[in-house]
Amino acid sequence: MSSIAARSQPRIRFNRRLVGDILAHTYIWIWLGLFALPFVATSIHSLELPDGGYGFAAYTDAFGSFKSNLITSFEVTGLTIAINLVIAIPAAYAFVRHTIPGKGFLLSILNLSLYTPAAVMGLSLLITYAFLFHIPKSTTGLVAAYVVGSYPLMLVPMIVALRDLPLVYEEAARTLGANRLQCLLRIELPLLGPGISAGILLTFVIIFNEFLVTLFIAGPSNTTAALRVYNLTRTGFLPSTAALAAIMQLVSFLVVLFFFKFFGSRYLKGTYLI
Amino acid sequence: MSTAAAELVAVSDAPTRGVGWRARLIGPGLVLPAVIATIGFSLIPLGYLVIISLTHKSDYFFGHHDYSLKNYDLVFHRYRLNVVTTLRLGLLSSIITLIFGYPFAYILIRKVRYRELVRTLMVFPLFGPLYLAFGLYYVLLPKGPLAGVLEFLHIKGTDLLYSEPMTLFGMALFTFPFMVMNVGAALSNVDPMLEEAAQTLGAKGWQVFIRVLFPLSKSGILAGFLMCFGWNIGVFVVPILLGSLPQQRVLSLVLQQKAMSSQLDYGLASAMGIVLMAIAFLVTWLSLKFSRGALGA
Prior knowledge:
The structure holds two protein chains of two kinds.
Chain A: H1 2-12, H2 16-46, H3 57-65, H4 67-97, H5 103-110, H6 112-115, H7 118-131, H8 139-164, H9 168-175, H10 180-191, H11 193-208, H12 212-217, H13 225-233, H14 239-263
Chain B: H1 2-10, H2 20-53, H3 70-76, H4 80-110, H5 115-121, H6 129-140, H7 147-152, H8 157-160, H9 164-187, H10 192-200, H11 205-216, H12 218-232, H13 237-242, H14 251-260, H15 266-290
């Protein structure tokens, strides 16, 4: 008995490297916990019942009274993604495969709205929509604002993907008799799939959860779910508000998981967002 | 801004299809929708904002077109405290993000094998400061889910609520992923052999950091810091939910109140917006200048 204890003693000795590793991983896990903490707390709050128990009553409420907001959110986000695709695919193609005068400068200008603080963008659009374009509180204005604020997010991953794509495939197809349209539809777009999906993911995550520009330019008829969460936090912290916030985060998170599962995170690199 | 953009398109200058004017028009033609969208809904509104910022309250819309720099005078004098608060909160929260984010990025690059999991959980802050602030608010309430832990640590959650440290923490949590990505990109280009060589030659841990790691990751630190700062000067919802009056002086919040409350002081709000935008553009330009080579790599 005593000999075993004596033999194992050196192993228990203070090992600096091991302790360092344990501390390092603990540090990572503490932060991982902090990242998820707000979502977890929101979810717990959303499950609370007025009588102190737990249940899904808040979700029934949320789907009942916030249904129109959720529908608006999905509609404007979907519309924005569709318009972004129409704008960004030709633009990315032009940037990589064609000559444009002042390319670098032009790309900077197109990216300008990404770097404008949301409140400033909201204010400028509020004034412009009200007094210059005469489309205040309209869904058209809302979608236009989203498109301008987010299509650069789609452009960058697409440029990355297209730049990585060798010209060989396209040339081979052309040599074998495909015309330009066939070449685009059957060779390039499928190969660009991951880059395009990355753009869709970024647009979805950003626009679905955008509330600040929306606060300036949306009206009562097109209040998105994210703006509704903001409005509700000003009046109190009800479980139904938490339920709506939890739904929004869960949907966003599932979309991200889905993307990572199929494409990995390589194409998101140039955007620095994920 | 232009250097990073140039880098992104640098490789692509080589292949040009055909010659003649028709081939040359294809490129600009394909970018045209993007250019129109940006001019119509970004450049024109911002230009309009500049004009309004030179006028008094909302007189411009009632036919009075007299211009002056009075609003800017107000921003830099009567509202100087608001500008200072915006800069202070942005600076402090970025420093906090750097102090906690650097070790995180280092451990992530050197020791962690479950990087996909980290990347997946790190998307939560990116859904926006609104949900973060809302969740943290609830955590600090007396009946919150971490009440036991806070009590064990002798922290009174309600003391933290509506305080500057909590506001800064909320802002730092939101920008944490940006810092980790920037610093991580720089650190992953540093060969671990260099650290080992320094240690073999007798350098202590802190010496390795100051003489080897820090100089080699300087560009990433600067780019990350400026990017976080650029996000944080536009902060809006975190001070509302987690801060109190001293933190709620930030420019975004005040300009929203000036423009949307009954005051309708569009002139002053616009001037505040222009000042905020100028700071943000300067910061972004610097950050892209320093993140050269990391973009799209």
